[in-house]
Structure formats: structure tokens, C-alpha cells
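Hi there, hope your week has been kind to you so far. Do you reckon you could talk me through the fold, stretch by stretch? I've dropped the whole record in just underneath, so have a look:
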Amino acid sequence: MKTILALIDFSDVTPKILEHAHAHAKAFGGDIVLMHVVPPEPLVVDFEPPAVPQDIFKIRQRELLAMRDSLTEKGVNTTAQLFGGLLLETVLDQIKLLDPDLIIMGSHGHGALYHLIVGSVTEGIIKHSARPVLVIPSIPAPETTPLKAAAKKTRRSVKTGTLIGSLGGTPAPL
């Protein structure tokens, strides 16, 4: 695995993306490309100041370079790329140019209505990229399930069923 593309959106899932990118790069001796796309400002006429600061490129560049430096200090060759434009189209164009061996990105778990109106960048990349995509969920994994908690409490394994047979062999008790 030579090139790992880590798509950074500066959300709560970003540290997990960096962690997985670092682990994969170390395990396979690969390089990391950190990429962030600043979307264009919406064309809305309003009497209030814009919600997004005008110097968002400078802010994002500074943050992206700090992430790059952190990964470089950990011994992974890392570059950072910052683009402006439509998110999905820009990322897909860069995927074609970079030809990464793995794409790592986050998913925010929006509902069906959001996907209907806005769409899903994650879904678009999975559909249109010929490269493997590792999707990191933003929802934290539960620490334990009720079944695991019951097994821990009783300190014995939980029997879930009986094997009926396997490929013509005799059944084995569990």
C-alpha cells in the first residue's frame, strides 16, 4: 500500500481518520495524503455577516499543516492538500490524479431526508471510486452490548444455539 488518501473535514471524526491513516501507513509502509476541500459559500442574500470567516482557507491550511507535521513526527511521510470547490467533484477528480491505494474518510450518519435533499459525499465516493474506501463512523461504538454484559456478569459463555450438521458430517454438540 503506497498511498493512503485521508479525507479531512475537521469534524469530531477527524482524529479517528488520522489514527486509522497512521496505523495503515505504518503497517504497510505507505505515505499519507491529507485532503480537505473548502466548499463555495452559499449564494444567500442576508443582512447578517457571513457565518464562515473570509479567511477560512488560511485557518484550514494552518490546521491541515499541523496534522501533517504531527504525522510526520510519528515517522510517516505525509503531505497536505487544500482545495476550494464542490466537495464530491473535487475529491473524485483528485482521486483520479492521485490513484491512492486506500481512501479513508468519515461518515456522519445523517438521515434519509438529508440524503434526499443534500446527498452523501461518502456514498458518492464509494459509488464512483474504483479504490477501496474505509469509512470511519462518527457515532462512537458502544462499549458493551447487553449480551456481552450478561456474559461478563455470569463469567461463562453464552450458548446461542446448537450445530445441526456441517457438509454431511455428524452434528457436534456446542
